[in-house]
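User: Can you help me understand a structure? I only have the sequence.
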Amino acid sequence: MPRLTDFDVLSFDCYGTLIDWETGIRTALANWRRRENIQVTDQGFVEAFGRFEWQEEEENPTLLYPEILGRVLKRMAAGWGVYTTPEDIKAFGRSVGNWPAFPDSPLALAYLKQHYKLVILSNVDRASFSLSNAKLGVEFDHIYTAQDIGSYKPDMENFQYLLTNLEDEGYLPSRILHCAESLYHDHIPAKKLGLATNWIYRRHGQQGFGATRPPTEEVKPDFQFNSMFEFAAAHRAALEAAA
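Assistant: Let's start by predicting it. Here is the structure, written out as tokens:
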């Protein structure tokens, strides 16, 4: 069983893990949802987003994330038999920078930065992430986006890109801990490449998988915490125990 003190690098998914994308998605589309009188629960709303997002990313791996969001919104509208305008589509595509950080993310990252290299492996574009990065309040050592790689997680190419770039700097896979909420997008492919993983289980206490696709196979993360705060506290305890 690995220990939190066994690693030199933390690689992070961002949206759903560090950034509260479900709140961001609902807020960005609240006026459209109200205008079109879409009668679904919040859970059903983000699940619809999740169903179409992974399909668009799989079918259009080289499109930038704002374009993916626009296409997802059109699919959601068609699925519910309602309208969406070019303005709705453009605004949603540009909304990522407004999605809020989870309240514990900045402080936890600031603490972890003292002990690890911090890396982002995200399914967005560089411009969108730069706006989110400002909300996280930490300088990441490396930022790898779908725009850089030309594919979206869970494509294995994204994780190969991560490993190749970090190995070039002398970091072996055994010293990297991948941290993410989505079992489907992150934990399954990361484990297939032999990475240890840390499940930041933001949706604990809620049903289903929300805006992420349900896992297509069983996967067992090496660590599990309900928040970044819990993760940072566990690391602090591990250091004290080792002292």
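Now, to help you interpret it: The mean pLDDT is 97. The first strand starts at residue 9 and ends at 12. Let me know which part you'd like to focus on.
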